[in-house]
Design brief:
The protein has seven helices and eleven strands. With 214 residues, it is α+β, with helices and mostly antiparallel strands. The strands form four sheets. A four-stranded antiparallel beta sheet has the order 2-3-5-8, with no helix packed on it. A three-stranded antiparallel beta sheet has the order 4-10-9. A two-stranded antiparallel ribbon has the order 1-11.
């Protein structure tokens, strides 16, 4: 059930609900030297029984700063769609919520954003004795193996009658059906989240997420 107490506050388009685990742990790396097929493992206990392992899909890297910006944009779209676990969006919606207006910049980012959405869907996050569950109101004492989201890219020729509405702008070449993974979705709708200004969130420097990576 969605908490309605923040409805008025969240009319501010820059505010976004960020899932607790994504805020607390290094889901998105700020490293400038990420390598293809490089796995990152972070320990959160001296006996190494509490850890996060981030595993990229074959021949890719783990999510970084661009993926974080895109994910925050998707969360805004998720909010604007009434917090439905599955929602539609166009590339133009992502650009708008990333505050990218320049046409040349947009054109240069199309392929990168497509690749980043794929990376968000195919990177595996393994939480051991670590993942916070709002439903249980505590950390889960076992292994949670999950991605952030799944998606489908739909072109005009494959669109259903309802989906054709998203192609009213002839410049739209494809639309995305995004589905947030169950673990993260449940936390966002069950108060397992914090509310941030999106720009402030990207500028956080001293949280665990921003300081633990190497």
């Amino acid at each position: 059930h969605i908490d309605d107490s923040l409805v008025e506050l969240e009319k501010n388009k820059d505010l976004v609900r960020m899932e607790m685990n994504i805020v607390e742990f290094p889901i998105f790396s700020r490293s400038k030297t990420l390598k293809v097929d490089q796995i990152k493992k972070y320990y959160f206990s001296s006996d190494k029984q509490s850890f996060l392992e981030v595993v990229p899909a074959v021949k890719t890297t783990i999510p970084g700063e661009l993926e974080e910006r895109i994910f925050i944009a998707l969360l805004k779209i998720f909010r604007n769609n009434g917090y439905n676990q599955t929602f539609y969006c166009r590339m133009s919606d992502i650009f708008e919520n990333m505050k990218i207006a320049n046409t040349n910049t947009r054109n240069s980012l199309y392929a990168k954003i497509r690749n980043s959405i794929s990376k968000l869907a195919t990177t595996t996050f393994k939480f051991k004795n670590l993942f916070y569950s709002s439903e249980l109101n505590k950390q889960v004492d076992d292994l949670i193996n999950t991605s952030i989201l799944s998606y489908r890219a739909i072109t005009f020729k494959d669109a259903s009658d309802v989906e054709l509405n998203y192609f009213s702008d002839k410049r739209t070449k494809e639309i995305y059906v995004i589905m947030l993974s169950q673990h993260f979705y449940e936390n966002i709708v069950r108060k397992g989240y914090l509310v941030f200004d999106a720009d402030d969130l990207l500028n956080i420097k001293d949280s665990v997420t921003r300081s633990i990576f190497s």
